[in-house]
Amino acid sequence: MAQEHPHQSAADNYFLAPGMWATVRNGLAFLALAGWIASIAGFATNREQFHFSYLTAFLFCVSIGLGALFFVLVQHLSGSACSVTVRRLEESIMRTLPFGVVLFGLVVTGIHYTYHWSHESAKTDAVLKQKLAYLNADWFTIRGVIVFGLWTIWALVLFRKSRAQDVDGAIAHTRNLVKWSAPGLLLLFITASVASFDWIMSLDPHWFSTMFGVYFLTGGGLGFIAVLILICLALRNAGYLNNAINEEHYHDLGKWLFCMTAFWGYIAFSQYMLIWYGNLPEEIFWFKNRLVGSWEGMAIFLVFGHFLIPFFALLPRASKRNFKVLTFFAVWLLVMHYADIYWQVMPVLHKNGISPHWLDLATLVALVSTFGLIFWAQLRERPLVPVGDPRLRQSLAFHNA
Amino acid sequence: MADLALDPRVELNPPLVTGGQTYADLTEKISSITEQPPPKQWYFGMAIAVPVALLLFGCLTYLVSTGIGVWGNNIPVGWGWDITNFVWWIGIGHAGTLISAILFLFRQKWRTSINRAAEAMTLFAVACAAIYPLFHTGRPWRAAYWLFPLPNEYLHIWQNFRSPLMWDVFAVSTYGTVSLLFWYVGLIPDLATLRDRAAGLRQKIFAIMSFGWRGSARQWKHYELAYLILAGISTPLVLSVHSIVSFDFATSVLPGWHTTIFPPYFVAGAIYSGFAMVVSLLVLARWIYGLQNLITLKHLDNMCKVMLATGMIVGFSYGTEYFIAWYSANPFEQFTFRNRAFGPYWWAYWTMITCNVLSPQLFWFKKMRQSLVGMFIISIFINIGMWFERFVIIVTSLHRDFLPSSWGYFRPTWVDIGTFTGTIGLFLTLFLLFLRFLPAIAIAEVKGVLHGQIQREKGDH
């Protein structure tokens, strides 16, 4: 329960040292450059592989941005005090979403390679020809721009109002943010569903699952919490926010990591079990294709790695308060999140089993470092916590019961 | 904090107990309800609820002595009001568990004034729900052989563990057991309070019921830990029970039933209907017993927001189902959803949409979230809408199956209607008895909230 202890806080430096900021930026910029050069080489030599690898990395990064947007919205709506100190970092991850639309351009240029509803043969397919009014390159692009447009509006508004509060500390911003967050949450569910249907589900255009949007967003939420924990711990190692984000806050973040792991297990199990149980030819093939050859091993690995192992490992209180355990499982679950998307996307290209390609790594490095740079740019000469938030003091003094 | 017009500390942490109450006031206010003769509204309520509850027993007697042919169920609609009512009642129970368990883990202190009544409501709703699976077998004394893994070579009845109906039995009985434990553990300190105020036989009864609670620091320490563990155990139950109820439908291959979004969508719907029922009951209880200082407008405002949020999830799910029905390009899926909205049961479908999707939109306005009459009416609408949701899912998917020659139209019989109305009577009877004999608000927990509030005012930070 949040109790107030006036002696805490204040000791933290809320601004990154310019030198340290520049060093990290240079590192990220170098990685981005290397990643993009390699990716461009792959683009020129193996377009099909490039677009599949790129799509996987793109979905990985965007889903984490959406997870950030989700948690920022929920935080404003619930008015929770304990999580205020991590909110600026969340907002900075969310703030990467507006740039996604540029990177979406490369997905659009790859439509012909990745989405076979764009092929001539779709016009004669008894099922697909009925869907072409929806699944076509023009509408795919327009829908992508619209969903990114909406995420951009919300990301910018939420970020700006929060920044404005840094300066004047007015509670009016808090009220205003609540007003924006309620419709934002609704729109997020709708747009994330549309995005997941378009970007992943339509890779197998015959297939459909009403759960898919929830599944996508849940994975993103989990990936986001893992990223957030890692960023907080990295800043801690660099000597920042030792008081503002202390053991109590990590305990809470660990609970969220656990909670999202459990929720992902619930959603993934429900989707699989219902389709397996029904065993209808128009649905079951999606899982069947993902259980061919070594894909089956990967599916079983996901059951353990994405759910069972982290579930039991994160259950005890002690592991959520242990930074080493927390770091390990945050990294682990990020890898699992990537593996989950990989398992959804890649069997369309490599039908007979897992076939790792250097482009998988190259595109991942390129996109993660690009998104990382955008994130890092938000932290330059800006406070790392929302210093004007009226609940900040409660958050600083927060204790788990 | 630059905004001086309104003290942000008050706005961000609004008082959850108003009227300058002391600890003694709280004890007196809540305990006296059980100690004094009930107000005339209570008698009025019982005068309606008890006869209606008796109707239930009449209908069930008739059912058992005649056979389930007295219900309207028939091929092609083999599941009618029985399972509609079962799902509706189970769903209503979910608000209690959400408030007591999940809101506890999320540190939502406003739950303290409403959790006791909501948990009691959960138990009564589960009791009403349990009637349907038991009696739809027609021979409830043999139902145990279907439902529980009992040796039964003699009867040649075998449980099908691969059936979600079987999983339901385990899910619901676990849910009922944990909810009862949670509710009762919460009651123990308050029962001891009642014991300490009572004399004679009443004191003896409460002494037994409170398990000799003395309120020592040691006891409180264990109590709080037990409470936390029970909250942790209850949390997955909020998801599991209605997910498994949704599996009853979704594991089939019937268009309109077989869809993957069912588990979370059913859970959201359950919480939605549960909160609607809590609001309906608490608005009345608050008025009858003058609990305005304990169940404040802030509490009701929050509950309206939960209804808005879960109502939107339900609406989102309806939309997703329609979109995917079109997107699937499966003619059977498409027919089922067209038939739902424009077929013979169009009236049920549009009642559902009006009540579940349109009516909660009024909660976007603060005025509606603060209007007792307004929220009471909307909560009744939502209760109706959620009943129709189950009716629409069950009956419209069944009544026109794959063979047009066997299409039909389900009509309830008077026994269907009587049984359903009867369970509402039973539910209200149990709830009124609860209000009469047990502390309807968690005294000890509200005192904890009041303590924090007083500390804040004293310390002025």
Architecture overview:
The complex is a heterodimer of chains A (about 400) and B (about 450). Chain A has helices at about 20-45, 45-80, 85-95, 95-110, 110-115, 130, 135-170, 170-200, 210-235, 245-280, 280-290, 295-315, 315-320, 325-345, 360-380, 390-395. Chain A is mostly helical and about 400 residues long. Chain A has one domain. The longest helix of chain A has about 30 residues, at about 45-80. Chain A is globular, with a radius of gyration of 21 Å. Chain A starts with 17 loop residues before the first helix and ends in a 5-residue tail after the last helix. Residues about 1-5 of chain B have low confidence and may be disordered. By secondary structure, chain B is mostly helical. Chain B is globular and about 75 Å long. Chain B is about 70% helix and about 0% strand. The relative contact order of chain B is 0.17. Chain B has helices spanning about 10, 25-35, 40-65, 80-105, 115-135, 140-145, 165-195, 200-210, 215-250, 260-290, 295-325, 330-340, 345-360, 365-370, 370-400, 415-435, 445-460. Chain B has one domain: Up-down Bundle (Formate dehydrogenase/DMSO reductase fold), CATH 1.20.1630. In chain B, helix 4 (about 80-105) runs antiparallel to helix 5 (about 115-135). Chains A and B meet through helix 6, helix 8, helix 9 and helix 10 of A and helix 1, helix 9, helix 10 and helix 11 of B.
